[in-house]
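dude i think i finally got it to work??
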Amino acid sequence: MAQPGSLAVVRVGAAGGSAPLTSAAAPVFIDHFGATTVGQAAPSLTWALPTTTAGVQRRLTISGSQVAEGGLQLSSNGQYLVLGGYDAGVGTAAGTGAGLLNNAGTPRVVARIDSSGNIDTSTAYANGEFSGGAGTGLRGVYSADGTSFYGVGNGTGTLPATSGGIRRVAFGSVTSAGSPSTLISPGNSGTGTANVRRAIAFNGQLFAATNSSPFTGVNSVGTGVPVTSGNSQTNLFGAGGSSYDFFFASTTVAYLTDTRAIASGGGLQRWNFDGSAWALAYTINLGLDPASGLSGLTGLSLAGGNVYLAGVSADGRRLVTTTDNLSNVTASAAFSVLATAPDNTFFRGVAIPAPGAAAAMVLGSLLASRRRRQV
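look at this
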């Protein structure tokens, strides 16, 4: 497979903002950058998520300070980017009280974005699914084809009264007490499955990343990609770190981000499967800020066993990339910085967008160049 042409990265906060972000709700943008060009000064294309309501289309904001929010993924069929957020106005204060960002009455919204930048935010978890004492956001979303979504977040409480976990909802639906989402796997703080950060499907199996012992790291969820409730999680790898996002390059090689400082083991972990168990092979961290590991991650398996990898630094400041090879036994490559977030903004999740988005990005660059020549 060829090298990707572009990357899509979530940016929280408006470029040119004069004040640092806080835990309050902030506007969300999808910036597009070239996948291999180092030191890009600005994105070639930006999509703004809605901050006002229009019919069934809802607002989508996320907290300005929550690293776990803003996960971005491409649907398995390659047609849509998906992410989650809050149906709340910009500036809504964090907290679980009435009218606040993390309150049970604040719907959590799914955005589905096609390759032309058409954004749909009609899908909402509106039954308090991601609230509870922790009051968490909709951290990440997985979708096979844009017709249903698996939203993830932190869980509070113990069974049967839990929130968060992994919850499936149909596209365009708004959950309620009479029409709830499907609790695929509970966020149970009593067993350690609570702190779910991302979910993806690979090779016909659903996986989730959590950061609560004894499930820290990557876990398989049920059998296949479940559509009914009551599925348990089985920990595969990642214990001992600070896990956020992950990518399977093959059935025997996977990568997991760790947000800890480099001296504490942060960076990008490579895990190998020998047929019976997963083991940490090495951690790629050369070129990263020593104080910051990685949070967001995307990847693509290329020809010759090469693996393209792009991530977001844990402090949200840098979009970085590196290349590994399936045959490597030690870390041999360094990260390069593709772009730096503007002042008073942060990068969050990153994904390789649908092919049409790359064409739109090129067209946008050409039009911008033409406008500059005409000035």
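Residues 6-248+347-374 form one domain.
im so relieved honestly
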